[in-house]
Every structure is written in C-alpha cells, then in structure tokens.
Amino acid sequence: MAIKKQFSKTKPLCKVTFSVIAKGSKNAAVAGDFNNWNPIAGELTKLKNGTFKGIFDIPTNEIYEFRYLVDGIYLNEPEADSQKWSEFAGAENSVLTL
User: What CA–CA distance (Å, rounded) separates 89 from 31?
Assistant: First the structure.
C-alpha cells in the first residue's frame, strides 16, 4: 500500500494517489472524510500487476480519516500520516494530513 501527494502550486488542492496491492481481489476503493465515506466515489482501478490505484484531487489544509475497502474488508494504510481511533467504526482509521 502507498500514498503519494502532489500539491498544486496554484490551487488549494492536492493530487493524492492511493495504491493497494491486492492480488486476487475483485475490487478495491478508498473511503473517507474527503468523499463522505462513499466507496463508489473512491473506486480504485485494477492494474495488471494486481495493484489497485486511484488519483483524487483533495482540498488542502485539512486532516482526513480514511480506510481502504478491499472485497468488502476494511484495511488501513500503513504509510498514512497517522492512525486515529474511531468510536463509530470501533477500529482505527488511517489519517491523511494535507
């Protein structure tokens, strides 16, 4: 798994690339505060090597919680900026600081 951030020089946006290695999985998505926890809005594209990848423009100057959803199972990003306990989920969420 990996996150890549590319900040815009002219807009308060960051192009964030989310990548999940999930060979053998059928689908993957990223859901979080930045897309109202909607996995459909965060669908990732499956590449030939089994990695799922997606690039999203996300507003800066915010802190977002998120998780991956791979074949119906929520996973955290080990390379996230931090982790935060969520009472709602009863688990830790990954944190993205932009």
Answer: 13
Alpha carbons 87 and 15: distance in angstroms, whole number:
29
Q: What is the DSSP letter of 23?
A: T
Asked if the model's pLDDT at residue 1 lies above 80, the reply is: no
What is the per-residue pLDDT across 31-53, written as a single tens digit (0 to 9) for each?
999 999 999 999 999 999 999 99
Strand ranges (E), 33-81 = 45-46, 51-59, 63-70, 73-75
Asked if residue 98 lies in contact with residue 68, where contact means CB atoms within 8 angstroms, the answer is no
* pTM reported for the whole predicted model: 0.92
Q: How is residue 48 written in tokens?
A: 């030939």
